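Response to reviewer comment R2.3. The reviewers asked that we include at least one raw input/output pair. We reproduce the pair for Adenosylmethionine-8-amino-7-oxononanoate aminotransferase here without editing.
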Amino acid sequence: MGPQELLALDRAHVWHPYGPMPGAEDPLLVSSASGVRLRLADGTELIDGMSSWWAAIHGYRHPELDAAVRDQLGRMSHVMFGGLTHEPAVWLASRLVEITPEPLHHVFLSDSGSVSVEVAVKMCLQYWRSTGRPEKRRMLTWRGGYHGDTFHPMSVCDPQGGMHSLWRGLLPEQVFAAEPPAGFDADVDHDYVRHLADLIEQHAHELAAVIVEPVVQGAGGMRFHSPRYLHVLRELTAAHDVLLVFDEIATGFGRSGALFAADHAGISPDVMCLGKALTGGYLSMAATLCTSGVAEGISQGEVPVLAHGPTFMGNPLAAAAANASLDLLLRGDWAGEVRRIEAGLRAGLAPAADLPGVADVRVLGAIGVVQLDHAVDMLAASKAAVAHGVWVRPFRDLIYVMPPYVTSDADLARIGAAVVAAAEVG
Ligand SMILES: Cc1ncc(COP(=O)(O)O)c(C=O)c1O
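Raw output as returned:
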């Protein structure tokens, strides 16, 4: 089938993320990808500044990841996880326990980030039901967050960005604190700490958990905050009998400069969600980890099991990709690579700060953000980046990149130039 025919069928039949039906814009048709480059049907090659939304940290068609998936394909691509188990999933779960903060000891594997957040919320609600406090059923979060598109995750997304007004009456009503003060290195704002303390104390009787994205708020606004607020949340939740959930679906596996964003603060939540880069971006898989305290609480309930069990739970192909991705990451100097990318992005994006219409330029780890003082003209900005040979996907007032860790310095410079060009016209 030719490209024009494919695009016509795409427009007529295929939903794209946050897209209308029929489609309003023609997506770019990708025929293959390798290293950090996407190859389009017309032969154009674009450097991927997005890592396919935080996921492809090792780039595309990595020989080790390809071999791991191929090898697993030769054994079995999938078997149900109820009553059966297998080496790729067991090995993966035990390694996740090893590398995540102590004492997260138990792992629930699921198929996507949103589902892993659903599972995290279910763990927390079921924990309190099972331990005789069913009234603890609300979640608290800070504004500016994003946790996925299914209903419980949506209920803890930023109320405006998450379009809560569209879902009034349907979404569980959660408790919202103000956005955390901006700046990874900023001093702690004591008024904000008091605000968190008041809110948690006031609602403790009905709160199952506090859920946040630690250090980096991603799709809710690409904002960075001080790890000190994670300490504050840990202390307040422990003091008030409230569980703490970290959604590390975007930040996990080195992206923010620490293996997990929680490591910036040296603390552990009670429940943690992982996804995206878990499989190196090869296949869809996510994980929800919890402490033995949470697991034991659930086990003492009237229904002593965690009431969840997706068909593709623990998928062997995805687990094999995840194990190979972890091998690559932990064997190599991921921290050095992320620092190198951080330096490259700082240098490359700096000229954007002088452009009219640019409100802020910020970089943390392998994440670079140019924030405009107006809504970005997405089409014009993407076109400008493509003209520089780079794929970006701006949203709202943000042009942002999180390149694969294997991006060379020369390609990083091209990404920087492309983002600056996008900011000029966006
Ligand atoms: C922090 C965070 N949580 C949850 C999700 C949802 O993950 P998924 O798109 O795999 O459902 C995302 C996706 O962008 C995310 O960034």
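Residues 112-114, 117, 146-148, 213, 218-219, 247, 249-250, 275 surround pyridoxal-5'-phosphate (CB under 6 Å). The CA atoms of residues 10 and 79 lie 32 Å apart. Further pairs are available on request from the corresponding author.
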